[in-house]
Design a protein that fits this description.
The chain has 181 residues and is of the alpha/beta class. The protein starts with 24 loop residues before the first strand and ends in an 8-residue tail after the last helix. It has six helices and five strands; from the N terminus they run βαβαβαββααα. The longest helix has 15 residues. One of its GO terms (cellular component) is cytoplasm. Keywords: Disulfide bond, Electron transport, Transport.
Amino acid sequence: RISMRHLSTMPPAAPPPTSSNTQSVVEIRSAQEFDSLCVKASATPPPVGGPVILDFYADWCEPCKQLTPKLVKLVEGAAGAVRLAKINVDALPELAQALQVASLPTVMLLNEGKLVDSFKGVLPDDQLRKFVDKAIGLAGGAAGGPKALERAAEFLEAGDVPNATQAYAELLALPEHAASA
């Protein structure tokens, strides 16, 4: 586990925060902003807080340029259940070092103030969607509803029977669909 308590004592690396804590996607500009918009927000229940996905990137990183837009799209489609915090490692090297970010892109999932999952590099779209769905599930929201039904149908139409079967089974397991099972 990564201890994040020491991060709030780090000096600011940029001007005071200007990001709104109600946005789904925020650019982190200082250690203080990281503490309030990521660590503390992930420890606060939704809709005010909830899980936070950390996207560590650099402007020169080509794989980051592929991954970040996909993450943004998935998080914006999550209707506020999860937040994406973009962290430029060149602007905040001390934060990247404190979190032991050694390669780019690195993505971490915080929930209840703790690191619960992470990956390095660019994942295939279906695995990336599952990562974001995990965050939505941690928020107490269903990675379900109409969008999950659409995804299950897309798997089926594409001939991906194992993923379609799993997606439909997950939908049936949701409390609102328990009577259908």
